[in-house]
């Protein structure tokens, strides 16, 4: 497993995909600080419930503010990072050396998870610094213990995004093609992110909405006490999603005929 992770790290560092992902996630908070500054300059007022991030303290919510963009960027990365292994036939090199398919699958998932964590941290850090410079650090309304709040919020948002990353990894191993994987990952993201909200319009199936982690990500206000109280539920649903998707992905991968 360690050898597989080392090999994946070397391939990743030699690829432009890493730089592209980090560049996009680093550019977003900078652009949003400048955009918010321009809006205020022209007389608009930033409102946390609408704008999500309005000062340095609320910068911890950068993952919430850019949830859809993060998912689309990471889904593209995962689709090409894994799909190219099948299309170029390089997957045979690892498997021919007797590497476990389970370990191979998990190594890809771990690399995707680590990249997501690094990207989320960089985006959040730049957002907090940028908005602090532009609007002051300030605070989050109703939050007394800010340090504990940041730990809980960052962890919860990360797990919500990671659960979707695990789905993208599963899709990539099932399709074995970068283009097809990218399409299905995009459809999954849009379908569960916005389609799941349809259940909220029904009387008996409202709770089904929150079987999908994207619903928490898109429909929750992570500075609202009522939604903050749901953090344990969000993490639980995320972990269940990761376990189920990984199990399905590994089982199908073990039965895959590598040509």
Feature tags:
mainly alpha, 12 helices, 0% strand
Mean pLDDT: 89
Please give the radius of gyration in angstroms: 19 Å
Shape annotation: globular
Strand residue content: under 5%
Largest sheet: none
Element-level helix/strand string: HHHHHHHHHHHH
Q: List the total number of helices.
A: 12
Structural class: mainly alpha
| Share of residues in helices | over 70%
What does this structure look like?
The longest helix is centred in the middle third of the chain and has 35 residues, at 101-135. By secondary structure, this protein is mainly α. The protein has helices spanning 2-13, 16-41, 48-51, 62-65, 67-87, 91-96, 101-135, 146-175, 178-194, 213-219, 225-228, 231-254. The chain is globular and about 60 Å long.
Could you give a short description of this structure?
By secondary structure, the protein is mainly alpha-helical. The protein contains twelve helices and no strands. Helix 2 packs antiparallel against helix 5.
């Amino acid at each position: 497993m360690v050898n597989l992770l080392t090999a994946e790290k070397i391939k990743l560092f030699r690829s432009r995909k890493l730089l592209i992902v980090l560049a996009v996630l680093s550019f977003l908070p900078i652009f949003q600080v400048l955009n918010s500054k321009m809006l205020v300059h022209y007389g608009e007022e930033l409102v946390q419930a609408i704008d999500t991030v309005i000062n340095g303290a609320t910068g911890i919510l950068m993952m919430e503010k850019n949830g859809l963009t993060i998912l689309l960027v990471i889904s593209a990365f995962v689709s090409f990072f894994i799909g190219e292994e099948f299309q170029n036939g390089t997957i045979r090199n690892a498997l021919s050396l007797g590497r476990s398919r389970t370990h191979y699958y998990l190594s890809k998932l771990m690399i995707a998870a680590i990249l997501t964590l690094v990207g989320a941290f960089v985006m959040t850090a730049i957002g907090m610094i940028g908005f602090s410079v532009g609007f002051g650090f300030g605070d989050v309304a109703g939050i007394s213990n800010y340090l504990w709040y940041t730990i809980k919020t960052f962890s919860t948002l990360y797990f919500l995004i990671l659960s979707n990353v695990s789905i993208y990894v599963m899709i990539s191993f099932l399709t074995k093609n970068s283009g097809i994987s990218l399409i299905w990952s995009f459809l999954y993201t849009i379908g569960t992110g916005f389609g799941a909200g349809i259940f909220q319009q029904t009387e008996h199936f409202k709770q089904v909405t929150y079987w999908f982690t994207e619903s928490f990500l898109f429909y929750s206000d992570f500075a609202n006490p009522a939604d903050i109280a749901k953090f344990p539920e969000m993490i639980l649903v995320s972990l269940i999603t990761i376990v189920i998707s990984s199990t399905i992905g590994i089982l199908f991968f073990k039965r895959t005929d590598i040509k």
